Amino acid sequence: MFSRLRDKNLRVQTPEEPLVTERVPRHVAIIMDGNGRWAKAHGMPRNEGHRQGKENLRRIVEACVEFGVQILTIYAFSTENWNRPPAEIGALMTILELVLDQEVEKLHKNGVQVRHIGTLEGVAPRLQEKIRLACDYTRNNTRLILNVAFNYGGRDEIVRAVRHIIEDGVPAQEVMEALINRYLFTGDLPDPDLIIRTSGELRVSNFLIWQGAYSEYYVTPTYWPDFDKDELRKALIAYSMRKRRFGRTDEQIESSES
Ligand code: FPP
Q1: Among 127, 236, 240, 255, fewest CB within 10 Å belongs to which?
Q2: How close is the Cα of 246 to the center of ligand 1, in Å?
Q3: Is the pTM of this model over 0.70?
Q4: For residue 255, what pLDDT is reported?
C-alpha cells in the first residue's frame, strides 16, 4: 500500500518535473522559522526577514496546491510571540494585514480556503475583522485548506478545549480522544502527517502538540525565506520514505500492505 520512493538517491529534481512520489502527505504543517537569522545573514533588519518570509509563503502555498497537499497549517504567530519587542510585533501584524489585503482574492481564485486557528483575543479589532472576512469569503473552496495558526499555542488550545468540555457538562466517561479532538481549534481536520521546521531548531515550540502525536517530523537547516519549492519537494520525498508505524511492529505493517 505504501508505495516506496522511485528515486532513492534523493536526486534534486528540477522545478518543472512532477514530484516523484505517489505518497504525498494530506496535511503538512510548517514552523516557518529563521526569518531573523536570514535577515542577519544578509545584513538586513529583522523585519525584512519577515517580509521575505511572507513572499516565500505565497510560493509554498502555490507549490502545495501543485503537489496535491490538501491541508497546509502554518505557524504565523504564537501566543509566546507577544514577548517580542513591540516594534517587531507591530511589523508582524502589518505583514499579516498586508497578506489579508493583497492575497485573499488570489487565494480564493486558486481554490484556497483560509482558516484560522488560535484566539483573536488581544488582536486589534480591525485585524480580527479582516481575518473573519477572509475565512468567511473563502469558506467554500476545496483545493487547499490554508490553516493559519495565529495567536496560537498548543497548551492554550488544550486548556480552552478542557474548559469548553466542562462548560458543556460532558460526563467524565464520555471524555475520549475523539471528543477532545472535536474541541480543539483544528476540529474536523485530520492530524498533520508531516510537520516541517525550517532553520534547524529541534523543538516543537508549542505547535500542534496534541495533533502532532504521530506526525512525521522533518527539520532542515534552511531558513524559511529560502525554503523554496525544491526544498518542499525534498521534504515530501523524505516523508514518502518514512514507515509510519503508529505503535505497530514492522511485521504488522508489512502484512497490512500485502
Ligand atoms: C520565525 O522567524 C517566524 C515568525 C515568528 C513569524 C512567521 C511570519 C512570517 C513567515 C511572515 C508571513 C506570514 C504571516 C501570515 C504573518 P524568527 O523571527 O523566529 O527567526 P529567528 O529565529 O531567526 O530569529
Answers
A1: 255
A2: 31
A3: yes
A4: 81
